[in-house]
């Protein structure tokens, strides 16, 4: 039985990847952080008491900021595959905690790579690299050969992690891959990322639990896919004969504005835009109610205006294809958050 270690198992991608690996018969080990509140919601459905027979999911306390915990896990588990998904993953927040973001997102990767050498093991290693590396537009669509131009402390930290992964592959012959994943979303997406923030608020507005949604830059464009599809690409990268780096994307891009329009229209609240700049408002075309306002607090000191990926290499070499298109993603997230809001309403009496 193959053993995998996942950092960031409690996150969106970690939960889908754990599901995929368990379904493939792996023994899955996840690093989790000590927290004063529950942080295992996304994997609770997979967890069984380790005292029971046949359990294949094991959780261990650790932290990417703590090399001793990483080294111990590597020595004890001796995994065949490591997926480094753990990160301070919020771009806007990285401007507030730049140094911490560097510690976790950049140094965290080298702590694992060095830990692998020290433990004398040779697992395959996956690094969660990001389309944020492309930052300011140099060319579109963005592919493996497009130069990086990071635009946030998050992206700068991820650039270090990208290159240190490449460097350990070249220096020590490690099977180490970078997946350069474009934005991927799901009903499990963190609630402060823009897609989920929109679907969550729209569901609550529809259920009468909230009046209005405050957003930042409506004109940013992203290549949005479904997280469940993207974790398959991670796994495929580690099943190849040779390690390499791959762009994982849909090849389509849409604005935040359009995403919001689709979501609100699906819930019977078609949007009309009035005003401009920080005074722009999204109004319900049927009732005239203001549903969306701009709050400059959500603007970023430096913005990434346009991401559009070219997944040709992943398609050709990995045989990977995104299965979920934009319309289906919008529908999946909107419907899940409407159901959640309705449950919340019932629970509130
Ligand atoms: P999430 O924010 O949902 O999950 C991040 C995970 O990292 C959580 O499990 C979190 O734990 C864990 N974590 C945070 N800090 C530490 C730390 N110091 N030590 C150990 N674990 C830590 O991110 P996603 O699932 O969306 O993304 C997974 C990875 O892929 C991240 O590295 C992200 O930067 C990258 N990425 C994501 C993309 C996307 O569109 N989703 C696109 C490209 C790259 P806790 O639950 O306790 O907070
Ligand atoms: P991103 O995702 O920064 O691309 O990083 P996010 O959903 O946070 O932002 C996407 C775009 O929407 C604009 N925006 C807002 N964003 C947020 N969060 N909140 C708002 O209110 C809002 N209004 C407009 C942003 O300015 C931005 O242009 C995600 C993360 O998952 C990273 O970890 C990952 O590496 C990249 O995707 C690829």
TrEMBL record:
Its EC number is 4.2.1.47. The keyword Lyase applies. InterPro entries: GDP_Man_deHydtase, NAD(P)-bd_dom, NAD(P)-bd_dom_sf. The keyword Lyase applies. Residues 5-333 form the NAD(P)-binding domain. GO terms for molecular function: GDP-mannose 4,6-dehydratase activity; NADP+ binding. It comes from the Bacteria. Its cofactor is NADP(+). GO terms for biological process: 'de novo' GDP-L-fucose biosynthetic process. It catalyses: GDP-alpha-D-mannose = GDP-4-dehydro-alpha-D-rhamnose + H2O. Keywords: Lyase, NADP. Catalyzes the conversion of GDP-D-mannose to GDP-4-dehydro-6-deoxy-D-mannose. HAMAP family: GDP_Man_dehydratase (MF_00955). Belongs to the NAD(P)-dependent epimerase/dehydratase family. GDP-mannose 4,6-dehydratase subfamily. This is GDP-mannose 4,6-dehydratase. It comes from Geobacter pickeringii. The lineage of its organism: Bacteria, Pseudomonadati, Thermodesulfobacteriota, Desulfuromonadia, Geobacterales.
